[in-house]
Amino acid sequence: MSEIQPLQVKQFILSLFLWMVVTFTLWFYLNHWLVMPLVLLADPVLAFLIPDTFSSLELQGNAGMVYTQVGEVEGKLIPAQLAGHRLAFEFNTLVISYSIPFLAALLLAALEEDVIRKLLIGLAVLYPFILLGIIFVSLKQLLVGLGGYFIEAESLPMLIRESIALGYQFSTIIFPTLLPVIIFSWLAKDQIVALIELRRTKAGNNAG
Questions:
Q1: Quick one: pLDDT at residue 134?
Q2: How far apart are CA 99 and CA 176, in angstroms?
């Protein structure tokens, strides 16, 4: 393992910003394909969790479409068969998956070798949380969109409703920004430890 010099930290910061331009641009155009497997996985999970209101989850571009088993006629929610249509609620998958380009930029900026393998490992750790994000955002859309009808049809107690709201906040605000940093710290721990040891050595020499 090569020592990390102080200059490399500055290089890392500059390289990180440059790589973020690249990875976020690619992510914007490839996001549909990156999240499609997760949408396919989330569909049966939602069908199991909320069978009385959920119909299907589809991906249209970067938009997730949560289709329900109900329609609306003159302001009233009724079964879709009677209404002749299904209500659908849309959400932007970009607000859930931006952890992907962030993690990629961190690893590409810091690692000089074995980047692809570690990136794949990082994505394998990250993807389950993105899947949870899609599930929680879908639940939140139904909770807000259908309101009392959804709560009554699925018999949702207050604790579950609060859990949906909390899961939504974590999935769109905390996880996408915090998880890439944690995963990066784990995968690049050798470089980080070397930097800490180098600075301790220099601090000791200066004190002496």
A1: 97
A2: 4
How far apart (Å, rounded) are the C-alpha atoms in residues 108 and 105? 5
Q: What's the token pair of residue 182? A: 């944690």
- Coil, strand, or helix at residue 32? helix
Q: What is the pLDDT of residues 18-73, one digit of tens each?
A: 999 999 999 999 999 999 999 999 999 999 999 999 999 999 999 999 999 998 88
- The residue ranges of DSSP E strands in the chain, in sequence order, are 54-60, 63-68, 70-73, 76-79, 88-92
> What was the pLDDT predicted at 193?
72
Give the contacts of 54 (CB within 8 A, at least 6 positions apart): 46, 47, 66, 67, 68, 69, 142
d(CA 134, CA 46): 10
